[in-house]
Design a protein that fits this description.
Elements lengths: L4 E2 L3 E2 H44 L2 H6 L7 H6 L3 H11 L5 H5 L1 H13 L3 H10 L13 H10 L1
Antiparallel strand pairs: 1-2
Helix pairs in contact: 4-6, 4-7
Length: about 150
């Protein structure tokens, strides 16, 4: 019982290579299915939020700082507050900074909600990209640079 070899199918290294390729394919399919499921879940959450906001009267919407024609954008950007929180945390910008600039948090949040680069932001936050790389895609970069300097 020296080596594992099947005369009919080839050597053990050939079989292991084939198994490795199969495992990679299955792993890729699994990862893709996970991304699709996450996308469907996010889309479902967006639709749910949009329906809930549409049920509110104009007064309740205005109390939240939302106009009826902004509902779709707000629902689409529902993850923006979490991304902003994580961005501030990553840049070590604490709540104390906003005591000096109370209006700035709302401005940052508004720019975040309107941003078309949220995917890039999520990747940068998830992968821990280079510390200053956010400057290339973040609409809030000038303000964040200023706030970081005040720390």
């Amino acid at each position: 019982m020296g080596t594992l070899k099947d005369e009919s199918t080839g050597s053990a290294p050939d079989w292991w290579a084939a198994q490795n390729i199969a495992e990679r394919i299955v792993g890729g399919i699994h990862a893709l299915a996970g991304r699709v499921a996450a996308g469907v879940k996010a889309w479902h959450g967006q639709i749910y939020l949009q329906r809930q906001l549409n049920r509110l009267d104009d007064g309740a919407l205005l109390d939240m700082g939302i106009q009826r024609d902004q509902i779709a954008d707000v629902a689409r950007s529902r993850l923006a507050p979490e991304l902003l929180r994580r961005m501030l945390e990553r840049l070590k910008i604490g709540e104390d900074v906003f005591a000096k600039h109370p209006e700035l948090r709302q401005e940052l949040a508004q720019r975040c909600r309107a941003c078309e680069m949220r995917g890039e932001c999520r990747r940068w936050l998830r992968q821990g990209g280079p510390g200053e790389a956010y400057r290339n895609f973040c609409r809030n970069a000038p303000a964040l640079i200023e706030l970081a300097a005040e720390r």
